[in-house]
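Z., the sequence and structure:
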Amino acid sequence: FVAYDPIAAGKMKYHFAVDIPTMEATNQKNSGRCWIFAALNVFREIIGKNCNIKTFELSENYVAFWDKFEKINYFLESVIDTAEREVDERTVSWILQNALSDGGQWDMIVSLVNKYGVVPMESMPETHLSSNTRVMNQMILMRLREHAAMMRTMIADGKNAAAYKDDVLKEMYDALIICFGRPPQTIDFEYTDKDKNYHVERNLTPKAFYDKYINLCLDDYVSIINAPTQDKPYGKLYTVKYLGNVIGGKEIAYINVDMETLKELIIAQLKDEVVWFGSDVSKFGNREKGVWDKASFGFEKILNMPFGITKEQQLDYRDSLMTHAMVITGVNFDESGKADRWKIQNSWGKEKAFDGYHVMGAEWFDQYVYQAVIHKKHLSDDLLISLKDAPIELEPWDPMGALAYCH
């Protein structure tokens, strides 16, 4: 990689003042399920502490199955809701284009866990298609668009499409079982702890498993974003139209804050636990070395052009958006006490970077980190009050919803 500067990158040392011990990196393989992997990586640390387990993984496949099923239902409901609009109207086009991506948002995880719980990896292992989703998504989406055309025609003719939608869901459920396997209704949880003691608990439902071994109150966590654009004043609550998975589930919601506040909240939470977050990893990164740092790449010298675009401009002019979710597990500080690099647990396997962990520089963090999930106890009174407001609706294509459309 010609532009990579190993001398500058040498400043991205793999040492941190705050460094939370966590389990080995997982691997989402050829899928866009980063948000699921990141959330389950947060949850499994709780199981590790509660059960005295060194290594453990929850089933991303189980969560992805129900996410796909719920997204199919959400898509069909959106088709019905917009049936009277022209098919080339922008919102309808957006719905048809982005119906079945692998991506998602924190609040979508909350909805899935509240409804379906979680299970250990052993209870619903990966399949080839759960780890390699592109062709499967294309085929299912092709069929869904066919159903969408039929439903819009039925509604235009004055017919009720509800019964037809139920038949579609049955067809899609069977297809998902072929692709992912059948999700278990009950599990036997078996494990051997660090002291080599064997444990087993039988006939647990996925929700009972979550309640007993994780029991994290997800409603106590809030998505905080940093979007310094004129259309999103700080301190306000936002949502995105037609973004979600579970009908009747948790509404997508974000509080927008300035970057200094976002970093303060993340650092406060790192004193207790790791942090789920979203960023744009398409910029100034070396995946092999595990470094995201603008100073480590000499594009300006090689191309003889400066890059002074601001974060606000990148969002407004569609140069950057959220592309990946990971987990912050550590931070380091310079002599003045400011964060100068961050330790990141990724889900691209443990073969690359620092055994699957990565380092983000301070400038990169400010420019390309957009979201973090923070416990309410760390929020100021003003931010807590904003949670009670009706959220301001953003258009479906707003950059703050982009993480849900990763493929």
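The chain has a mean pLDDT of 96. The CA atoms of residues 119 and 206 lie 6 Å apart.

Let me know what you think.
H.
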